[in-house]
User: Which sequence fits this backbone?
């Protein structure tokens, strides 16, 4: 369960950082963000989820051996 909590904290942190970065160039309302802001945000979500899935699959394979 700590892995899920860690993933959630990381997702929230990345979201806050991306929002703060793009708030200077893009409208503060996320519904009016430029597509580039959404692309960066989606990229980091994919990276974090892939790292989480990689770690969980490695932990499962280590547990089976």
Assistant:
């Amino acid at each position: 369960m700590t892995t899920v909590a860690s993933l959630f904290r990381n997702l929230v942190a990345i979201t806050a950082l991306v929002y703060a970065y793009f708030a200077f160039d893009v409208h503060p309302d996320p519904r009016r963000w430029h597509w580039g802001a959404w692309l960066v945000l989606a990229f980091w979500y994919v990276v974090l989820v892939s790292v989480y899935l990689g770690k969980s699959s490695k932990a499962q394979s280590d547990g089976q051996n």
